[in-house]
Amino acid sequence: MKNDPVIIIGAGLSGLYAASMLHAKGIECVILEARERIGGRVLSQAIADRPELGKLDLGPTWFWPEHEPVIAGLVKELGLRTFEQHTKGALLFEQSADQPAQRHMLPEGAVAKSMRFVGGVQSLIDAVADGLPESVIQLNRRVTAIHMDEEGTVSLDVKHAGEGKESLRARAIILALPPRIVADRITFTPPLPRHLISSLTDKPTWMAGQAKAVAVYDQPFWRDAGLSGQVTSWAGPLQEIHDASPDTGSGALFGFFGLSANDRKQLGEERVRELVVAQLAKLFGSAAERPVSLLYKDWSADTDTSVTEDAKPLTDFPVYGELADAGIWNSKLFFAGTETSSEHGGHLEGALRSAERTVNDVLKCFF
């Protein structure tokens, strides 16, 4: 058992950062990822026939260096290029579909300085992964069950995409997954304590009930009209809109939906896309009617992110933090991920902080 690796489940930012810290200590580890890509909820996408327009973020977009020291330090350490989120200009406030949007100028300093990544947040994911040996990250590996025998030996049932299955042994397991995914998709023998199951299911997965639309244009034409690209809307379908333009060249606007996951499903993706373009045209004029591309990602339909309970709209910011005691699974199971961070839960900073805490706990137990 002492020669078994630490196995990390999930190749999102938290899982990758945990692996990088373990690797730096000379500790053998393996990441098992169910998807065919790394990044988890980080998803930066280029337009297939127009790569020069840049990569657009369909997951997290920003970080706030003045308030988030861990990610700020990591960005500096990795030498990643960043640029400040565009907020210059008037904000639009849309009260109803029947009335024109109102322009408002925010006071100087009203918006906290946020930063974005050249090449999208995927550049952060790729940079962390590049520091790991190729053999550490194993894609298309879905963990279906975790067992602990009477001697305390831990093993995992792993299903390969189209390649059968295998059983692996681990010294310890880091679950770098949304807590609800752990409770819903993995069987534990012996079972997890009831209070831990309750703690897992009570933590909504950040953004799991949301979708994100990004309209891409040849240039950010709204800036010439003195607009920031920011919109607050009660008319929808997008409730919150921001300038998503890359650092140079093209323009882009992205928005979060006021429509619930169930409403989006009933309307269908094609109709949702039509409504988004119509709203952008109403807000920003005829130039917004013909985007080069409209990227769309509904995270509520992503089974590696969302469970049924996540379709229920959130009314308040979730209370995140460490999970309940694992009982007999203590020193075998460790939980990482932004939903387990007591500070900055839901943010990239929370994902990194949870990885640091988890790795420290693993080191205390075994090394």
Question: Could you characterize what this model shows?
Answer:
The chain is of the alpha/beta class and 367 residues long. It has helices spanning 13-24, 69-78, 122-130, 179-185, 194-201, 261-267, 269-284, 348-366, and strands spanning 6-9, 29-32, 44-46, 55-57, 82-84, 90-94, 102-104, 115-117, 137-138, 141-148, 154-160, 164-170, 172-175, 187-189, 211-217, 227-233, 238-243, 251-257, 293-298, 333-335. A 7-stranded mixed sheet has the order 7-6-16-17-18-15-19, covered by helices on one side. Strands 9-2-1-13-20 form a 5-stranded parallel sheet, with helices on one face. It has a 4-stranded mixed sheet with strand order 12-11-10-14. Strand 10 (141-148) and strand 11 (154-160) form a beta hairpin. Helix 1 runs parallel beside helix 3 (122-130), helix 1 (13-24) packs parallel to helix 8 (348-366) and helix 4 (179-185) crosses helix 5 (194-201). It is elongated and about 70 Å long. Residues 112-363 form the Amine oxidase domain. It comes from Sporosarcina oncorhynchi. This is FAD-dependent oxidoreductase.
Précis, in short:
With 367 residues, this protein is an alpha/beta fold. 24% of the residues lie in helices and 26% in strands.
N-C termini distance: 13 Å
Spell out the helices and strands N to C.
Answer: EHEEEHEEEEHEEEEEHEHEEEEHHEEH
Question: Strands of the largest sheet, in order across it?
Answer: 7-6-16-17-18-15-19
Q: Give the mean pLDDT.
A: 95
Shape: elongated
Biggest pleated-sheet summary: 7 strands, mixed
The unreliable regions are: none
Helix content: 10-25%
Structural class: alpha/beta
Structure annotation, total helices:
8
β-strand number: 20
Rg (C-alpha, Å): 22 Å
